[in-house]
Amino acid sequence: MEIGVSVVMPVRDGGAFLGAAVDSVLAQDFSAFELVAVDDHSTDATPAILAAAAARDARVRVLRPEGRGLVAALGCAVAEARGRYIARLDADDLAAPNRLRRQVAALEARPRLGLLGSWAETIDAGGAALGRLTPETDSQRLVTLLRRTNPFIHSSVTMPTDLVRQLGGYRAAFEAAEDYDLWLRIAEVAEVANLPEPLIRYRWHDSNVTLRKEVRQCFSVRLAQQAAAARRAGSPDPADDLRDPPDWADPACDGAFFAATARLYRLLALADPAAPRPVTLPADLSPLLASPEPLSHRERKLAQRAIAALLGRTDRPRGATALRLLWAALRLHPARAATLAWRYAAGGAA
What we know:
The chain is of the alpha/beta class. The chain has 14 helices and 9 strands. Helix 2 (46-56) links the parallel strand 2 (33-39) and strand 3 (60-63). The longest helix has 19 residues, at 214-232.
């Protein structure tokens, strides 16, 4: 049987939700698919769950990449996929029974489509309904939106396999936003769209990447936007030489195409309480006080938290520098700035 779709499912220690995700794929009303499950060195019940699924259905293939991490797992799956199309599904999400049939039909009807997502229902860790995600569906508006945000739900997308390979697939340098970087590159050579129907159930829980790697994801988004802007200007892709996620704390970044972003994120990284604190005061706080480029909504939140962290340190800035930080906080969020100013004046932790 010809394989129409390779459903790509990377997983690491996803035993809590994995069985339901696999079952949702095997229950599709479109049968010409394979499920390519990539076990990223799991230490929980994941290997046993996948082995049992492969034993009961020959369409399930289990891969174990040599490398570690999501991008390595995705790269392994893209290289091994045998279907005409690649459909993504995270190991904690669920596919609607008609998902593959609806998306394959749309892709076949529109040969210029290079990326097709959908709307989604949102559920909590227990599977209870929370609401809906309804991203833009118009192709032209999606191209415009892509320049500043990601209007696709990664777990909902289906793409022509050959196109993904031609473009080099997912790139490790864009950790936590490797999907957004790929969407930008696809939109430069093909049409993109979202189907206006919920074809997946997207699960919100504490282990979501957006919660665990918020600072890195925001950095990677800005990095992808800068690389895309260079390509639009007719320059070679400046990210082609990046093999790993850049370390913004490395002084070598000051000579890179993303130098200003690196200087900003050395400070925004303070928003993560679990991250190391490499900033030694006094330091150049100008990227935080007056960023040369407008901050996104998420970056503004990071900036608020970074300022609070700076003013809460035992070696916190004082005098004019402290006032400038409080003024920057006021511009970001007046109510929170008032609380921050009171705590600072009281000498307590911010």
